[in-house]
User: Which sequence fits this backbone?
């Protein structure tokens, strides 16, 4: 089966966040029962929240008479997604320490989170440059 194609209007960071979510769900599905409804569940919920924040941020049109307000709304969602990525990285590290996931799985999650963090940060910088020019 060919890999799923991304939507034409979907940002790369959203695609990467979806890949991160798939990874987290796959990894946490095999975690010990004692962690499934606490640590694993929190990691999965954070993935869902990250994707939601990125979608909401992408839907905000920054322009027109209320451009400043719209820019601030987008920035808030971007920062929220970034904060949740940091939390996800922490939970993954903690899960590895508690032997809920393998260290190699933690490394994979950390790499994926780092890639998403870089993309969101670049998106924030790009919006800031555009806003400062206007």
Assistant:
């Amino acid at each position: 089966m060919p890999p799923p194609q991304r939507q034409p209007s979907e940002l790369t960071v959203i695609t990467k966040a979806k890949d991160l979510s798939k990874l987290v769900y796959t990894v946490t599905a095999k975690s010990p029962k004692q962690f499934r409804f606490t640590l694993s569940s929190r990691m999965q919920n954070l993935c869902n929240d990250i994707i939601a924040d990125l979608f909401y941020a992408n839907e905000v049109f920054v322009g027109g008479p209320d451009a400043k307000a719209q820019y601030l709304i987008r920035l808030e969602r971007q920062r929220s997604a970034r904060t949740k990525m940091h939390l996800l990285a922490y939970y993954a590290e903690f899960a590895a320490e508690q032997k809920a996931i393998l260290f190699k799985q933690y490394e994979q999650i950390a790499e994926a989170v780092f890639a998403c963090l870089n993309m969101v940060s670049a998106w924030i910088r790009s919006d800031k440059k555009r806003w400062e020019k206007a």
